[in-house]
Amino acid sequence: MESLNTIPFLSSQKLKTLWLVAVVVGVIGVAEGRNGRNWYESLYSGREYSAISNNRAHSASIKDFGGVGDGKTLNTKAFREAMNNLSKYSAHGGAKLIVPAGKWLTGSFNLTSHFTLFLHKDAVLLASQDINTWPLIPPLPSYGQGRDTSGGRCISLIFGSNLVDVVITGNNGTIDGQGALWWQQFRSKKLKYTRPYLIEIMHSDQIQISNLTLLNSPSWNVHPVYSSNIIIQGLTILAPVKSANTDGINPDSCTNVRLEDNYIVAGDDCVAVKSGWDQYGIKYGKPTKQLIIKRLTCISPYSAAIALGSEMSGGIEDVRASDITAVHTESGVRIKSAIGRGGYVKNIYVKGLRAHTMKWVFLMSGDYGDHPDNHFDPKAFPVVAGINFRDVVADNVTMAGKMEGISGHPYTGVCMANVTIGMAKNGKKPAWNCSNIQGVASGVVPPPCNLLHSQGPVKPGMCDLPPKKLEIHNMEELEFQN
Ligand SMILES: *[C@@H]1O[C@H](CO)[C@@H](O)[C@H](O)[C@H]1NC(C)=O
Ligand SMILES: *[C@@H]1O[C@H](CO)[C@@H](O)[C@H](O)[C@H]1NC(C)=O
Ligand SMILES: *[C@@H]1O[C@H](CO)[C@@H](O)[C@H](O)[C@H]1NC(C)=O
Ligand SMILES: *[C@@H]1O[C@H](CO)[C@@H](O)[C@H](O)[C@H]1NC(C)=O
Ligand SMILES: *[C@@H]1O[C@H](CO)[C@@H](O)[C@H](O)[C@H]1NC(C)=O
Ligand SMILES: *[C@@H]1O[C@H](CO)[C@@H](O)[C@H](O)[C@H]1NC(C)=O
Ligand SMILES: *[C@@H]1O[C@H](CO)[C@@H](O)[C@H](O)[C@H]1NC(C)=O
Q1: Does residue 323 have an active-site annotation?
Q2: CA–CA separation, 439 vs 127, rounded Å?
Q3: Which of 196, 225, 414, 449 lies in disulfide reach of 434, CB 3.0 to 4.6 Å?
């Protein structure tokens, strides 16, 4: 928080981006606490603040710190020294670290504020394979334990906490997690600690991750958590479709997030929206809200294009997904929850989903199970309400929908309009199986289950995105100069 008065105010004409980011977090907190207003409403109170900047006063190359890009030399020390050195510029115009062409083997390093990590198009960061020396950090408070094991978590390859104004980008340079060893150790239950992610940013504000190729993450690829004002765009994320839990992008207890133009081939959900796990997530109480997902392309034969949950105990609210292409996935949009999760998934909008080859277009489960421990509250029922789908076209589908709420706690307000599903030759009959859900449907083919009450022809606006755009929608993209 102390660094917030050092945000570089626009000095350069070239800096096209003006993030109209609200008053600095502290003030927002006060405004929210006092007036119950949203931060973006305070935008219109007349003050404009610049935030993310790609123009940094200082710039250095990893070579300046003794880095060697031969694919063999371990550069952990060089990266850590670079970060140490460049953090001194946070309050003096910020810094950029350039990673030139080459193969840069490295262990984990931490980012700093007002900072850009820039990868040349032929730069490849290779994650160290020395998994026993990987530094550990505590479990996330909203999870109570690591995701793989009850112990600590291996820190992510690129990590940041309590930061403001950070850009990780490049000319489509590569970050390769070399995850095969981790997947194998995970599968044979040899790991004592939770696997690292490729990029994790915690408790931070104004983050952009763009124009990179991420390969073979040991586990999740990009994990923003307890953070706000995040743009993730133009990522190519690739992992073998049978690799263990290589989720693409996991916004977790984050506010104001925009994911756009991402292409993901993954061994788990391409986008997995989360907010903490059972009693730990309920207690921590931090939702993911105001999330935009645009122009996502997903290939993930064993998972969903977009999953909400299963960790959703802090709540998930106001998610707007549009222009989604699922080429071969298990499901299109999936809601995963369970008794014990508590929390909510509400006001979800999906408009424009094109899908080819999948088991279920619509998948909702209320019995996902998978608890951190046995101390979850058996009366903590998730609330799932207001789940909207419009303009969906799918073909070669095995089953149109498998939609199961929780007995006595149905999923309500499901709305489907203009949905055309072409069933596979060996498609299941009936095409829908619904239980403990309530909702309406218009123009849905094949005709949906009886729990979705038919509303006649499709009306304009039905099940549609809300007309008022989210503020994060308007934030301009950065224009990069090398
Ligand atoms: C680190 O920062 C100092 C300024 O504090 C600078 O003089 C020095 O050259 C930097 N080191 C490298 C290797 O760039
Ligand atoms: C990176 O941050 C973590 C968590 O704050 C800390 O435990 C670790 O020591 C830091 N690593 C370095 C190299 O500064
Ligand atoms: C992304 O990288 C590509 C390939 O190097 C480059 O042509 C393009 O200008 C970059 N886009 C942005 C927005 O930086
Ligand atoms: C980035 O590289 C990936 C993998 O080589 C490629 O598929 C993708 O089209 C590239 N993206 C851009 C923006 O150049
Ligand atoms: C239904 O969806 C299709 C394709 O997604 C779109 O072209 C068409 O305009 C939509 N029809 C209505 C009535 O919204
Ligand atoms: C249809 O889906 C099945 C798997 O269910 C797949 O084997 C087949 O190749 C798909 N057909 C086409 C035309 O994509
Ligand atoms: C519907 O799903 C329930 C619960 O999974 C299952 O027991 C039942 O057999 C299914 N019905 C059909 C017709 O597939």
Answers
A1: no
A2: 47
A3: 449
The residue whose C-alpha atom lies closest to atom 10 belonging to ligand 3 is 171
Residue 242, Cβ density class (10 Å: 0-12 exposed, 13-18 middle, ≥19 buried):
exposed
Closest CA to 171 of 427, 477, 481, 385: 481
Whole-number Å distance between alpha carbons of 156 and 134:
9
Distance 134 CA to ligand 2 centre (A): 11
Per DSSP bridges, beta strands 136-137 and 153-154 are antiparallel
- What is the 409 CA–ligand 7 centroid distance (Å)? 18
Say how many C-beta atoms besides its own lie within 10 A of residue 454's C-beta. Answer: 12
Top mutation candidate among 406, 433, 450 for ligand 7, by most atoms within 8 Å of CB: 433
Q: Is the CB of 171 under 6 A from ligand 4?
A: no
Q: What is the pLDDT of residue 53?
A: 60
Q: Give the ligand 4 atom nearest the CA of 234.
A: 13
List the domain boundaries for the chain: 12-43, 58-471
Tell me the CA–centroid distance for residue 369 and ligand 7, in Å.
18
pLDDT at residue number 116? 97
The residue among 272, 296, 240, 299 whose CA lies nearest residue 370 is: 272
Check: CB of residue 458 under 8 Å from CB of residue 471: no
Does residue 366 have its Cβ closer than 6 Å to ligand 7?
A: no
Tokens of 423: 């069933």
Ligand 4 contacts CB of residue 325 (under 6 A): no
Q: Which of 268, 269, 278, 318 is catalytic?
A: 268
Q: Residue 475 has what DSSP assignment? A: P
d(CA 176, CA 423): 38
Residue entry with tokens 């977009």: 306
Q: How far apart are CA 58 and CA 64, in angstroms?
A: 13
- Counted residue by residue, the chain has a size of 482
Alpha carbon 201 to its chain's center: 11
Residue closest via CA to ligand 6's atom 3 equals 357
Q: What percent of the chain has pLDDT over 70?
A: 87
Ligand 7 neighbour 433 (Cβ under 6 A)? yes
Q: Is the pTM of this model over 0.70?
A: yes
- Evaluate whether 396 touches 421 at the Cβ level (below 8 Å): no
Q: Does the Cβ of 234 fall within 6 Å of ligand 4?
A: yes
Kindly report the CA angle at 278 between 275 and 279, in degrees rounded to 5? 110
Point out the ligand nearest to the CA of residue 426. 6
Residues of the chain with pLDDT under 70: 1-54, 476-482
According to CATH, what is the number of the domain 58-471? Answer: 2.160.20.10
